[in-house]
Amino acid sequence: MKGDLVLETNGLQKSFGKFKALKDVNLQLHKGEVLGFIGPNGAGKSTTIRVILGLIKATGGSAEVFGQNVWKDSVKIHQDLAYVPGDVYLWPNLTGGQTIDLLLHMSGQAHTPRTDDLIKTFKLDTSKKNRTYSKGNRQKVALIAAFSTDVDLYIFDEPTSGLDPLNEVIFQNLVAELKKAGKSVFLSSHILSEVEKMCDTISIIREGKVIETGSLEAMQHLTRNTVVVKTQNPMTALKSAAGVHQLTFTDGHETAAEFSVDSDQIGNVMSLLSDSRIVQLKTTPPTLEDLFLRYYSANNDQKVGE
């Protein structure tokens, strides 16, 4: 639905001399949605974000935020946007508190009780100078400033880099609050579990191209469930069943087995197992990591699922 589109890129390209950093990036982020943008370092995530932020000009294609051109209208767009990079550089002689207030002021925002709550939540000592902060504390300064702002679009580029697991959970909870409030979040990450927990839609970028977009649920047809099962009667039929992979019988009677099964064949395989009278059954759905590894496996030169 075009009306609630917050961010859209079509055929986005960016070249640095002869090197094509972005070849074909197509993204859509809707109001109240969290979009996960995943890929390994060097795949083009940060370059895409720099184009969206209007920091560099695209070589080809188009990019719009709030229906406006990201290059021509960047000043106007930034009035309703908050951004946290993966590596935060701060003014060394300012304290954390002064920096948060300065970042808010530069965004046309003010220090509010929410800012104070965020400082407590992240347990940041705002009296210390930025030059004394660890990478994680520098991230906290930027995150506190971003989450203090009341805007419609939040862009996070590897935002939890340097944070400990407890603060990662805090970040995830705050993103959930933004979504509940109808805000839009663009989250670039290579931490698959992070994306899996928070995102409605996932776009996978590989070598400058977005090669798959959809919900994790929609993409799971491209990968496999893991099954551990025990039955009363032998499961001989599994040996020739369509969609069954890595079948291992764990007893001598073929009544205990472990295998993986293509998602679109689960119904047929369950029927076969029922015929053998199931005693115990455990199935594990595919994770984003499973999907991701299949895309990036060294011998995977064709699209997954073909």
Automatic annotation (TrEMBL):
Gene3D superfamilies in the cross-refs: P-loop containing nucleotide triphosphate hydrolases
Keyword Nucleotide-binding attributed: yes
Annotated family: Belongs to the ABC transporter superfamily.
UniProt keywords, alphabetically: ATP-binding, Nucleotide-binding, Transport
Alphabetical list of PROSITE patterns matching this protein: ABC_TRANSPORTER_1, ABC_TRANSPORTER_2
UniProt lineage: Bacteria, Bacillati, Bacillota, Bacilli, Lactobacillales
InterPro entries reported for this sequence: AAA+_ATPase, ABC_transporter-like_ATP-bd, ABC_transporter-like_CS, ABC_transporter_ATP-binding, P-loop_NTPase
Protein name per UniProt: ABC superfamily ATP binding cassette transporter ABC protein
Record GO terms (molecular function): ATP binding; ATP hydrolysis activity
Top-level division of the source organism's lineage: Bacteria
